[in-house]
Amino acid sequence: MTPKSILVRIGSIMCRFSAPLVLAGCTTTGMDQEITRLRTLAETERAELAPHASQFRETTGRDVRLDVSGRPLLDTLDKFNGLPTADRLMYVGSYNYRGYLQYGWTDCPWPFDGRFGEKLEPMFNEAFQAALYVDKIEGSWNARQGLAFKLKRSVGVAALALGLEIETCDIFFKVPAGVAVVIAGADSAGGSTRLKPTAEGIEYRLVLDDPILMIASYDGLTIPFPYKFELTKGNIPHMLGHAGKVQVSQNGAERKYVLDTRLDKADLLDNGLSISGLVTVNWQEARVSMAEAERGTNGNSREIR
Amino acid sequence: MTDITHRRLLPLVVLLAVTPALTGCIQGRVKALEIRQLNAEIAGIRDARAFLDTSPQLGSAYDAHLFVGGGLFNRFLDGLNNYEIPLDKPKGAVMTIERTQLEFKDGAPTAFIIAKARDRKNRIEVRLRLRADLNMVADPEKGEVNITFAVREIVPEVRLSIFRLRQLFFVAGLLRLEADKYSSSLPASAIPIAGTLPIVMDPAETGEIAMGKTGVLFVRQKLPHFSLLYRYRASRALTLADGVHVLFKLERVQ
């Protein structure tokens, strides 16, 4: 090979290697200045964004947080108010009781055991029956009570069959004592929202704080029957599901994981509610090479905290 | 000069000429990529600010807000470590992901994928830096937020030397990789998101009524029962320095 042919060959090889590189753009002229300018601009823009972003920032070190509007719970009141009249009737009936309404006794004289006296109580287990009609439930949301609601324009009819249990020195018998008229007044009744974090999300309960007050009158005796009930109980899921996956090979093989989400904080907000917690990622397969993944080899599960 | 001598000299001459070009080329590509990433970052920050300037409030601008912390995101991505991808250039080479990490900042996260490439015979190993964009798409039908990385560049991190010929040619081969081609075979993960929110009016069937202060009535109560059903629809995802914030609208479906 002559020196000339060597040069020709070098030139040819250099063209093969260098030309594509040059075409690909290997010059850095002006790039450094542009990078410096853009970095400064990005920092300026980021500094201006910071105060706007603070309302969204999670500051308590939680892995996951869900804020949900209170609107769905408010909607339950609209739904209730839109129910046909018959469906807004509530029936309440006793199936058991404990205790008594009034009791008076003295010890039996010697040589008798026991006591001598009488006890006013329900005549039988099903002695109390009530029907309540709630015309409307009004409510609004606030950060202290959540959904705060009031039962409006409600009427109630109730009765309580009373019995007098007479105790005569260890001899017991019960006689009917009459029926107590029960007046139910629901207009003062109202309630609020209780929150409790659970494994599934957040449990909410709409509970009557101010009860439906029923007053039983019998023979000059007035006895209050405050009736509290839970309007509803439900669960708002934390949205982060239980299982996910990552693609682990080019052929689409996936590695699955299960999330262990532990929600331990629930708060009421101005317009809704919030839950937050920590998450552990449990992988269902050990780390494997692509070849193993493609063969479907499963290893032991592992946990990343 | 014999023909054999020419053959021995030839690679040396070629390499002397090519090495500076190759080294300069790597630097140029890294810088071009940095410019592209900075522009994307600035666009992300401006987009986030435009939204936050409207003072979006829970209950009006959005109905639900799911925050997933940056630390948790990176724990998802730990599952991708040791993930291997065969490369078509240089022939027979394999790329192994060593670490995938998102650095969260207000505006847009930066994805760092550290990998290594080995030649067919495992004689050469070169560390790689993959520059990628993070794509996050909510799929309400599947109840997932899908996360993929669009690889924009595969950059060998190597000090090139004309005395390590095999490495030099291996790197030259890596530089010819079409990074986009590997986007579909790189990390993809799905974070499950529940798609529906049932609200059930389901009062207890039994309760208690105090009988003055000395007794209790145990009652069965027949109260209204009904249910409402809402579907979450992801409307926006914001990435801030603490992690990802997905905002949802609630749509009543029942």
Put the structure in a nutshell:
Chain A is α+β, with helices and mostly antiparallel strands and 305 residues long. Chain A is 20% helix and 52% strand.
Describe what you observe in this structure.
The complex is a heterodimer of chains A (305) and B (254). Chain A is α+β, with helices and mostly antiparallel strands and 305 residues long. Chain A folds into two domains: 168 residues, no CATH class; 67 residues, no CATH class. Helix content of chain A is 20%, strand content 52%. In chain A, strands 2, 3, 4, 5, 6, 7, 8, 9, 10, 11 and 12 form an eleven-stranded antiparallel beta sheet that branches. In chain A, strands 1, 13, 14, 15 and 16 form a five-stranded antiparallel beta sheet that branches. In chain A, a hairpin with a 2-residue loop joins strand 6 and strand 7. Chain B has 254 residues and is an alpha+beta fold. Chain B has two domains: 171 residues, no CATH class; 57 residues, no CATH class. In chain B, 27% of the residues lie in helices and 43% in strands. In chain B, the strands form three sheets. A six-stranded antiparallel beta sheet of chain B has the order 2-3-4-5-6-7. A four-stranded antiparallel beta sheet of chain B has the order 1-12-11-8. In chain B, helix 1 packs across helix 3. The mean pLDDT of chain B is 77. Classes of the chains: A alpha+beta (305), B alpha+beta (254). Strand 2 of chain A pairs antiparallel with strand 10 of chain B.
Keyphrases for this structure?
heterodimer; A: about 300 residues; alpha+beta; 11-stranded antiparallel beta sheet; 4 helices; 16 strands; about 50% strand; disordered C terminus; B: about 250 residues; 2 domains; 6-stranded antiparallel beta sheet; 4-stranded antiparallel beta sheet; elongated
| Largest interface (CB < 8 Å) | A-B, 119 and 108 residues
Task: List the secondary-structure elements of chain A in sequence, H or E.
Answer: HHEHEEEEEEEEEEEEEEHE
Characterize the largest beta sheet of chain A: strand count, sense, and whether it forms a barrel. Answer: 11 strands, antiparallel
Distinct helical segment count of chain B: 3
* Helix content bin of chain A: 10-25%
- What is the global morphology of chain B? elongated
Overall 3D shape of chain A: elongated
Per DSSP, what share of the residues of chain B sits in E-state strands of 2 or more residues?
A: 35-45%
Low-confidence stretches of chain A: 21-25, 286-305
Total domain count of chain B:
2
- The percentage helix of chain B is 25-40%
Summed up, the domain count of chain A is 2
Q: Number of DSSP strands of chain A?
A: 16
Give the helix/strand class of chain B.
alpha+beta
Strand order of the largest sheet of chain B: 2-3-4-5-6-7
Mean pLDDT of chain B: 77
